[in-house]
Fold this sequence. Notes:
Blueprint: H1 19-26, H2 39-46, E1 53-57, H3 64-70, E2 77-82, H4 90-104, H5 109-117, H6 122-135, E3 139-144, H7 152-163, E4 170-175, H8 183-189, E5 192-195, H9 197-200, H10 204-214, H11 220-230, H12 234-247, H13 259-271, H14 276-285, H15 293-300, H16 305-315, E6 319-321, E7 326-328, H17 330-343, H18 347-362, H19 365-374, H20 378-393, H21 398-415, H22 417-429, H23 433-445, H24 459-470, H25 475-488, H26 496-509, H27 513-529, H28 533-549, H29 553-563, H30 568-572, H31 579-591, H32 595-608, H33 617-633, H34 637-653, H35 660-672, H36 686-691, H37 701-708, H38 712-726, H39 731-741
Parallel strand pairs: 1-4, 1-5, 2-3, 3-4
Antiparallel strand pairs: 6-7
Helix pairs in contact: 4-5, 4-6, 6-7, 10-12, 11-12, 12-13, 14-17, 15-16, 15-18, 18-19, 19-20, 20-21, 21-22, 22-23, 22-24, 24-25, 25-26, 26-27, 27-28, 28-29, 28-31, 29-31, 31-32, 31-33, 33-34, 33-35, 34-35, 37-38, 38-39
Amino acid sequence: MTTTSRDQGPPGGSGQLQPSLLHAKLTVPRQRPGTVRRTRLLHRLRATREQRIILIVAPPGYGKTSVLAQCASKGQSVAWLNADDGDNDPVVLFGYLAAALDHVAALDPDVLAAIRSGSLSTRATVGQLVSAAAARAPLLMAIDDAHRITDRACLDALAQFIDYLPAGSQVAIAGRGSVGLPVARWRAAGSIIEIGPSELAMDDDEALQLVRNLGRPIPEDVLAGLTRSTEGWPALLVLAAMAHGRSGAPEVADISGHERTIAEYLRSEVLQQRSARAIEFLTRTSILERLNGAVCEAVTGQPGSGELLVDLARSTILVDEYGGSYRYHSLLKEFLQDELDVREPGAAPVLHDRAARWYEDAGDLDLAVDHAFAAHDLDHAAALVGAGFGRYHWSARRVTVQAWIGRFGDAELEKRPWLAVLGAWEGLASGDVPATEHLADIVERGSFSGTPPDGTASFESGRAMLRSAMCRAGADDSLANAIRAVALESAGSRWRDFALWLLAFACLANGDEGAADEAMAEAVAAARSARNDGLAYAILGHRALLAMDRHDWAAAAAYVIDAETGTAALQVEGYLSSALACVARARMAVHGGDLGTARREVLRCTGLRPLLTAAAPAGAVLSLLGLARVHLGLGDAPGARAVLAQAAHVIRLRPDLGVLPAAVAAMQAEVARLPIGVAGASSLTTAELRVLPMLPYYLSFREIGQRLGVRESTVKTHADSIYGKLGASTRGEAVELAVEAGFLDRLPIPERPGSPESGDARRAAR
């Protein structure tokens, strides 16, 4: 497996993050000279080590980051993550958590690479992270700006990581508002200590230390008034003290925290007496999340921006230093952005455009896209998404791609229907029929005469491939569109291998196995020519299955061996495109009498079953037919029935699939003649397979329903069926049995009392 550099990022194949920016995300912020040590708070926190979770929530300016940094103590390793909006993708978040642990002590390179690639299940990833945390215990996992993590899948996985954190370790979380984590449950369990504005507010002694550190002698009675008027808000205390020191006024006006008052203080304390060049620099760079000399120079057009950054960092406590990378305090950032609008109306989009192009050149697609959207340049944003689609799709960044495409809205997608094609591919790959249908409708209404930046020959070619894959107009139409796509995607095209594979599916739906095999042979050659080894692996697996169907086991074995050369299998592990190759491995094992391997492969195939839907009906039905054969080879008639029932459901939604409905009906008749048998785990339906991975979380049926978009009663029905098929009487027992059966990854960590897998959890409501 390819190893991953410890300085590579962000995770998930999105390119190289600037080293200083990566350092800023993973390094405890430096305590600047003059920072007040919050001894009162620290004593309280250290006296409650039995509470595994520290939650610090307050508005900006209360010193959350400083307190979080001061929580680090001797004898405790510290893994730090500064969260941002780009972390709302499980692959990215997990990758950064792994990188944070790697900064404490090097992780196994293969484990780090697997987490960053997205090839592991969520549960397996959490297990690896917890195992890494256990090896570094006692550990403090600090997550700053956690309010910026809003993706539900990310939050659920983060909560599970926290729940399994080894004894003696803690997680400290800071945010400006609700963090979306199960705080109420942790509160009820007595495992959390909560710090809010009232605890973070400075008392008179801390305020006195603060002004002394600032070198601002203020009479104690005046300082007491300042502390009262600012309500101990550290940032405003600083500003008020500086204002008082300069004016020499014996009294100071009350500070309410209203935006206008804050702005007045910031204007007088930050901008007054600064040069026009420095003010221009401050306001223009306020659009950036992180600042370094190169990006600031590109955005402002000012040479020597690095030196100016250093000067500004020395002159004000409102710029935090991270070893060559800086950020503005959130209060200051918002104020400077308002000042930019006043001083240079209309300049913000231009500056965002400069930032987008700088990050594009630097290879940081995430920030480039964000700034392109902020610049209101949807054409540039679309071009970036299109150019990065293949890289992000095959690095498990599908959540990010879907979120980007969702930001355009239907009206803008209709202007760029090629982008709706990409969105439909992501919906299809995740088995989401409604989303794929919706985007396909936009594609059908659209027209586009240019060359799409995704590498397809034309919009017409992309639309033809989508039509062929979805088969909405029947098998004949699917074949006609596949032929058209192959003609448009000529030799050397990045999409020719995929077009040829779609042609093979269409040929099989129309009963022409010979033409399908020829198309797949050409597709493999095209994939290897394009160095698309993952797709070549998937197509070879499909070709092996076709050879098995004609009882040519020697050819099938050769295709399987050819497919598994190198690490190609890892590139598509867990993807819809890997389903046929997974089935091929299982059938080959059954034929060779290696039933243990066959059962392990069946478990992998079962994990892919929720992706096999009417979004890509021909591929789904062919995969399910092959899997049913495997179940029969293992003597598992109930499993075969469940798989064929899923295929029949696909056909009900897409009845015109050529010869495939008859093939399913024939196999159902064959299975119907077998003894009924006892339903077991292999007979789980796709709906049940979607519920099963949610059971280990501390989620009610209502919460699971919210995540899956179904009613609470529906989840309960599915859960009861899961319990029956697994032979379980409680939720905790069902999880244990699912782990034993291989349907859920085993967490490589000791059981915690009260965890979903523990005996205590068996009391959970059915």
